[in-house]
Amino acid sequence: MIRKTLAFAAVAGMALSVSTIAEARDQIRIVGSSTVFPFSTAVAEQFGKTTKFKTPVVESTGSGGGLKLFCAGIGAQHPDMTNASRRIKKSEVERCAKNGVTDITEIKVGYDGIVLANSKAAPQMKLSRKHIFLALAKDIPAGEGKLIPNPHKTWKDVDPSLPDKKIEVLGPPPTSGTRDAFAELALEGGCKKFDWIKAMKKKDKKKYKAVCHSVREDGAYVEAGENDVLIVRKLEANPNAYGVFGYSFLDQNADKVQGSIVDGQAPTFEAISDGSYPVSRSLYFYVKKAHVGSIPGMKEYVAEFTSEKAFGPDGYLTDKGLIPMGEKERKKFQADGKAMANNINL
């Protein structure tokens, strides 16, 4: 099980001296999730303005892409932290360990909802997760025990109550944590409404995941990269299209786009916070402890991110669309950050 601090036996020959890391770089480098990017950037900018340290460099590479870079090794050529809109996978922890990244601290920063949004110039869509699965899955049921390539061209093909509009959804690529979470929460959420597919999970988990998580590749779903701002612009230009991205981008562009109602619930701050919006997830960042104390400012950056003024209920990150955790969870991850700074393994 992944604990709040992920510690593993060191791999011989992979360690790099503290002095070598420090000599090579004096600025924090952060990669990862496009969803966490605006929050991390806001913290980095505040950190640069209010401390003696340089403003960290934050890159939007997607959760999977960021963890791949993060896990590649120890040293100045590798990032110090990575943002993720899903929890690190066991396979990624193992890849990190193989490359000498053997001590990782996990910090949960809050919650986010994944929205299926469209232009405010068009009507708001009312969908179920079953509708989303039948619209975007690669293969769909055609009777008990039978799957066929998705034949649906329009939303009305999915359900007569839906608009007679071409299915055109712009979304993130497979390297994105948003894509992973959308597949798990929305697609699988609709997929398991079919009892015979749900039963498959116990018999053949691999096949079940392939059926429930595979997105169609015939043009109905368009991979639009890791730039959520670009998706918003495309939705403005095309009122018939829909886009998949995090709630924060909906919140920041509420004058341009609107979120679809899913299973009777609109994607609001309150509905994501209390869990009633069905397509919600946790957000994280991961810290490479081998770089702490070597790259200047890492402890201080983590302290800023986990401060009440940043990720608390009235913090500046809520203005960016972050859904804050409750007090008990916030205190837990504040303690984890302090323990990391003091080099304590919890």
How do the helices and strands line up, and which of them pair or pack?
Blueprint: E1 5-7, H1 18-24, E2 29-32, H2 37-50, E3 57-58, H3 63-70, E4 81-84, H4 90-98, E5 103-119, E6 126-127, H5 129-136, E7 139-141, E8 147-149, H6 155-158, E9 169-171, H7 177-191, H8 195-203, H9 205-213, E10 221-223, H10 228-237, E11 242-246, H11 247-252, E12 257-259, E13 261-262, H12 269-273, E14 280-288, H13 298-305, H14 308-311, H15 327-341
Parallel strand pairs: 2-3, 2-4, 6-13, 9-10, 9-11
Antiparallel strand pairs: 1-5, 4-14, 5-11, 5-12, 5-14, 7-8
Helix pairs in contact: 2-13, 5-7, 7-9, 8-9, 13-15
> In DSSP terms, counting alpha (H) and pi (I) runs of 4 or more, how many helices?
15
Low-confidence stretches: 1-5, 7-19
Q: What is the count of β-strands?
A: 14
Supply the CATH architecture of the largest domain. 3-Layer(aba) Sandwich
Mean pLDDT, nearest integer?
90
Envelope shape = globular
Oligomer: single chain
Q: Which structural category fits the helices and strands?
A: alpha/beta
Give the DSSP E fraction (strand runs of 2 or more residues).
Answer: 15-25%
CATH superfamily of the largest domain: Periplasmic binding protein-like II
Number of domains: 2
> What Rg do the Cα atoms give?
21 Å
CATH topology of the largest domain: D-Maltodextrin-Binding Protein, domain 2
CATH class categorisation of the largest domain: Alpha Beta
Overview of the molecule:
- There is one protein chain.
- The chain has 346 residues and is of the alpha/beta class.
- The protein has two domains: 5-112 and 283-341, 3-Layer(aba) Sandwich (D-Maltodextrin-Binding Protein, domain 2); 113-280, Periplasmic binding protein-like II (D-Maltodextrin-Binding Protein, domain 2, 3-Layer(aba) Sandwich).
- Helices cover 38% and strands 18% of the residues.
- Strands 1, 2, 3, 4, 5, 9, 10, 11, 12 and 14 form a ten-stranded mixed sheet that branches. The chain has a two-stranded parallel sheet with strand order 6-13. It has a two-stranded antiparallel sheet with strand order 7-8.
- Helix 2 crosses helix 13 (298-305) and helix 13 (298-305) packs antiparallel against helix 15.
- The longest helix is centred in the middle third of the chain and has 15 residues, at 177-191.
- The model is unreliable at 1-5 and 7-19 (pLDDT under 50).
